[in-house]
Amino acid sequence: MPGTTIQAISIYKLLVPLREPFVISLGPLLAVENIVVVLRTADGHIGYGECSPFLTINGESVDTCFVVGQYFAPALRGRDALDLAGNLAEMDRIIYGNCSIKSAFDIALHDIAAQHAGLPLYAFLGGSNNKILTTDMTVSLGPAAKMRADAEQFQREGFPAIKVKLGGTLEEDVARIRAIRAGIGPTHPLRVDANQGWRTAANAIAVLQALGEFNIEHCEEPILRQHFMELSQVRAASPIPIMADESCGDEHDAARLIQLQACQMLNIKLGKSSGFHRAQKIAQLGQAAGLTLQVGGFLESRLGMTAAAHLALSNPAIHHCDFDTPLMFTADPVVGGFRYCPGGVIEMPTGPGLGASIDEAWLRRAEQVHF
């Protein structure tokens, strides 16, 4: 369609300080360093996408994304924005991997496609706004006393579940969880995420068995992602259900994990899957296998997290949402998007498309390039 031809592409660096360092077993994060992609079509539609590259997970940085995005822009300019699969295939033809920057383009393309269809993005994806989305809130890795204080604060603020970053020694992590449980009580929903920090299957099993008494809902990525063949051993020996995260990037990873019976749960992120096209394939595989699914993210603003929330409404097997990182920002550059409500409830935009954009004042002062 001539009207939906991609006419102009802009790429921006979005830099926002965090309120305090966000620490996981892979290292500390001090600031938001994201990419925003803006696509414009001949008929006036504007699509927004965002990615939050993560050096230690998807091997990308804000600088690599800014450069690789400039490989994509001239190739996509002049193509039909509605050819979603074809546009992703073109990006795959240009360069292998680089799933984070691909996701920013894919989100912007889906924004345009949903606007063109006159549908909220979740409806365009085949879903409906028929369930209440709630986000957990994450306790950063640190001393047990500080982690307990943070968990108590999040409980007071009404978050329905608390996620705790772990990945230290058995003694350290048990002390952390014991302190948190002493602060929030034995029944408040609690989840843990080792971010591969326990490394080996034997070590992970020992820690998980030691944590079994603390009423933990699930554990994300207990061992090194390269050791995914051993994840089924961890699942079999763990009293806590296992959720694959870093080891599940695309639908091929999901299929392998399902075949191995490696986990009971999958964590889907647009920045790992190159965007909606592959994320939905992961969700469909997980649903067919009877797995429970979560949608999460990296350090996206409410724009990228709104995209994730649309994905969460697209499949009934998606039960958990991890959409808390925008609450850690010192400023909010997003216009529209989902809204945080009491009790961790997410209120979605219902107009056509993604329903979120970036404040023009932020874009004007950002490092940028245009095609």
Question: Could you characterize the architecture of this molecule?
Answer:
This protein has 371 residues and is an alpha/beta fold. The chain has two domains: 129 residues, Enolase-like, N-terminal domain (Enolase-like, domain 1, 2-Layer Sandwich); 234 residues, Alpha-Beta Barrel (TIM Barrel), CATH 3.20.20.120. The protein is built from 13 helices and 17 strands. The strands form four sheets. The protein has an eight-stranded parallel sheet with strand order 5-6-7-8-9-10-11-12. It has a four-stranded antiparallel sheet with strand order 3-2-1-17, with helices on both faces. The chain has a three-stranded antiparallel sheet with strand order 4-15-14, with helices on one face. The longest helix has 19 residues. The radius of gyration is 20 Å and the shape is globular. The model has no long low-confidence stretch (mean pLDDT 97). This is Dipeptide epimerase. InterPro entries: Dipeptide_epimerase, Enolase-like_C_sf, Enolase-like_N, Enolase_C-like, Mandelate_racemase_C, Mandelate_racemase_N_dom. Its EC number is 5.1.1.-. Its cofactor is Mg(2+).
Q: Which key features would you list for this structure?
A:
371 residues, alpha/beta, Enolase-like, domain 1, TIM Barrel, 2 domains, 17 strands, globular
Describe the structure in brief.
The protein has 371 residues and is α/β, with parallel strands linked by helices.
